[in-house]
Fold these 2 entries.
Entry 1:
Amino acid sequence: MAAESHYRVATSPGDQVAPLLFSAAEQALDSEFELVEAESQYHAISMLEEGSVDFVANVISSDINGSKITYSSPTNLEPVFAVSRKPIDWQNKLHIGLQVHSPYKQYLLSAFPHIDAVELFAESDMFNKLNQNEIDAFLITYRDLARVAKYDVFIESVDGILKLPPASVAALKKSPAAGLLTDIASVASEKTTALTIYDTIQQAIRSARLDALDYKVKRLFPLSYSLNIALEERKPFSFYEAGQQKGIMLEVIESACRLLKFHCTITDTKHMTWEEIESQFIQGEVDVIAPYVSSEPRQLHTYFSDVIQEAEIYVVKRVGYKDHYYHSASELFLEKLGAVKADYSEYLWERYLPNKPITLFGTQEALIEALLSKKVDYIMLDSVSLNAMLADELLPIRPEMNIPSVHSVPVAVGFSKRDQHNQVAALFSEALELVDIEKIINAYDSPPDWQKIWISHNRISTLIYVIAALIIMMACVVAVLLYRTSRTDTLTGLKNLRSLERSYSKGLKAGETVLYLDVNRFKQINDKLGHKVGDALLVLLGKRIKKHWRGKAYRVGGDEFVLIGTPTDAQLRDSQAMLEEFLVPLEQEPSSILVSVAIGIFRAEKDIGLEEALSKADILMYENKAEVRVNTERNSQPLNSKTTKIL
């Protein structure tokens, strides 16, 4: 390619990706790319058709662009957001504003045929229509976020809802420039370029959302705002180590306070019981309490932030006590049961055994000591606290393997119902979206090493060393037995088929919904990209299920999953949208494969057996898979690096 090669590239206003991509392309392709800013993407396409430019950057493929245009492989994601005055219910009859000739119209009407797409010429028109309630929301790209940050609006990502494709570079078919599209896409897929583009987009989004949050805080609280925060000492949520306070909740709350520029003071609760902490909160002596499980009775006196972490509640006992004896929490009516007073576990015991006396303790530490000293035989612990104890303290306790999780609880931050705390809770939730909560949780919440439970690390005599060696050998045998009899899938962390069959041995109740999931082209992914990618895909799907499904979830086969719950129609649609398609990053290259999932949905109108319900959902799933297969064959491409979706 000649060094004198010169091309003109049309870009949309505020495009931060095109300069990065075509700067890298200049070096790699020994060509010069001149960037020309167009008024809009439609204007840029018109310039291309007129011959005044050779390429258009960051084009979303659409019928509106006509048949003269050819596209490169995807070069980057182009995040799109909906701006509104209040949270959007997409199932309602809505009026959604977008620019004239917007490529998003096609995808909006495809996803929601009942929605009225209102085409407007300028962003100012959209704000005027929104303020006058003539439209319910309007669509913008991430490039426009900074301009709307100064307004008091709700901003919602719609990429997953509308199923928008990644952006590409466009050229005229059969033009000399069209021959460069493959090379430009290759430049975009190079690790350094792809990561730089991705980081630039994410930083632009984060910066705009920080500006929007800062604007709201200054409008609502022009003076400095102070919060007095009480944290329960419960590892790993909040605890003391070497005289220093640490924990998930401490780090999450401090991060949110920094973003909000609030003055947050952590109250000393080291020698207080949970009942005393909650009493101070209810009486208004402290503003904030955490960790706090969101429940209906507590909502009478509490505003809650968005959920920070979902925790499973398990029935826990001493190691070796009545192994495989019970199969339900309701069967423990003859046992000595314990709970922390006023804790959520006290409510759960009363729910399962309403007339059973429960021994109550002031703190979780006292509860664990009572279990070890045999004052009680069974307690309930959340999975996060249990993992921390088994990983770090080497305690001889474990969940009763025959009793599945008795409850899943949403752990959040609670704000006392007074002053402007409803607004504070809403701002906290916005700030939490900008905090890397998963990174904080992963630093503290690690799965237990069961062998450590059996190993005593303070023995020094030869006799004890021999005993310890024997215990280790026994632990290995027990670990194998536990593994074989466990009802948890080791790869995804979801429950397995055995657990499903036991939990629903009496069938499903009327109103319960079954989702049967199967990954499309899973065998091809394994064959072409290797089992490591296949496993990573299943792990990622498992995480998405935990995040987006409100109910029970099971991995029942290689790439088959069963979800059971009682979602509303809106929740079901949201879950389906987030599970039926997602990107799986590839480790060796800066790209991702776009994975689709066939989903069969069956809602029981009357009580029904598990096998019959699964069969009906399975049939619907295969109908969905067949439809996907037809579409795939029509647009089939080989599964290789050139057809992957680029991050």
Note: Confidence is low (pLDDT under 50) at residues 449-468, 633-647.
Entry 2:
Amino acid sequence: MAERVELHVLKGPPESQPVIRVARKDSDRTHNSSRRSLRYSGREGCAPGHWLPILRWTRRYSRVDLLADMIAGVTLGLTMIPQSIAYATIAGLPSQYGLYAALVGSVVYAFLGTVKEVSIGPTSLMALLTYQYAANHPPQYVVVLACTAGIVELLMGAARLGFLICLISEPVTSAFTSATALIIIGTQLRNLLGVPKPVGAMAEGGILPTLLDVSRRYTEATVPDSSVGFVCILLLVILQQLPKLVPASTQRWHRCSRLLWYVALARNAIAVLGSALLSYWIDGGSNTGSAVPWQLSGRVESGIPSFQLPIQDIVVGNTTVSFFDIVTDLGSGPVLVPLVAILANVAIGKAFSSGQPVDATQEMIALGLCNIIGSCFRSMPTTGAFTRSAVSHASGVRTPLSGLYSALLCLLALGILTPYFYYIPRATLAAVLIAAVSPMLDPGILAKLWRAGFRYDLLAWCCCFALCLVAGIEIGLLGGMVISLVQPLANFVWLRVECQTVHEHDQRFSYRLIRVEHGLLYPGVDRLRSLVLQQVHLDGTTDLPIVLDCCRMTLMDFTACRALDNLSKEVHRLGGSLLLRNVPPRWHERLVLHETEHGLAFGSQS
């Protein structure tokens, strides 16, 4: 039997809004009981009072969820381990720092995360930002950067500033990620080709100096490194396309298609493991690497780091550097790094939310604690990774608990496999990074923006992309945000108004109508004054009254109220009259406060 809903509209005083009461019948009980049987959607921890989302869904955790999370976690771990090692090299850190970040981030987010697909750990974006702020400094600078970034993220979450993410438009996000991917590809060309890294100022250059230097020194590229790099890229591309070779629709090929799908997901691990075994076989187990013709990653510290607070003094040369001195040397990093991390994490959450809202505030808290706790275990800054999140989604993940299984694989790698990380070729890690970030390039959005007529968004994309390449990604992101915010702010500076002459009652009564769109704030006061005075002197007479229609006004400030009062007096001195019509109830009382003998007058509310 269909549920019957009765609506009662209670009419109150003019300044109050209509109140709608919904009366439900006994079928609510059935509706509520069926609602309790819904599966975990990845966002149930968003309810107020549930700051620990794991307490919401563990009560319904089943064996099927356990098996699905185990498969997804192991698959994700096979992708996370080689990527974490590679991202640590981008940041200029030893490989184990990437594994520390992946381990701690996966564990903490399993308890605090709200989106089951999100994988917290090192990313190409965070690695690049880390290198820009902590290059040529001891690793302790990176640890302090992670700690301060986590503190800022936690404070933003506590202040419920999740709405700030809405200030970054999608074209700016696309330009930012595309420029970052291009910069990472450019910085990995040296390792891919085996070109030695220069010393001096060129070592810290951006993408353009790097490409210029590589193009000048291409003759120094080594054949073994280049061969390993390009073969690994070709292998990764082939493995990625394997599932498309077998039709999955037929029952006969279902198992084969599923097997090829798992092989494609583990392609990074296959490439890294295969090249490392080849290097180990050529070296003959001597553990020196002298016989290997290509450059190797180097030794990796094994074991789990002990708990250590990052607020400690360090010795650099003969100078003791305090925690606050390190924060000062990091410049804008402790502010920009968390902003970019939150942007990336919430964007990934929205991509996998299936149209449901993402609790950005809870994501800020989770990400902040991931970085704060991670810094106590020598972790680099972390955030959500889109590539790994896509792998987790494709693996059939059920809850954030899958991160614990990925963390177990990272723990296994740190405890047992670290001696063998020495044999991973640098060209292989470069190939893994290039293949991982290439899908982030989004030049197709330019054609979409042009064909759809979004010229201003196209301008914001181009400016953000160019600034990221020339001035740095932090300047590019902030510049893109400023440019994209100009358009909505322009609506309040250059008011959108509709002006016309209206004749009513068989043209026995006429007036000039001005209808203001959106709202009237202090930046648009002068614009409105010019328009009203222009209408007063339109035909050289002041016989027709000016009617300002406020039916579409959603915003008004004190300056606008005072300006309307002064404008009404000015029109009266010129021999005309200014009337306000359809004033919203919430602004009526404020405007009355400015009413004088020849001031504001209110027309019909109809």
Note: The mean pLDDT is 78.
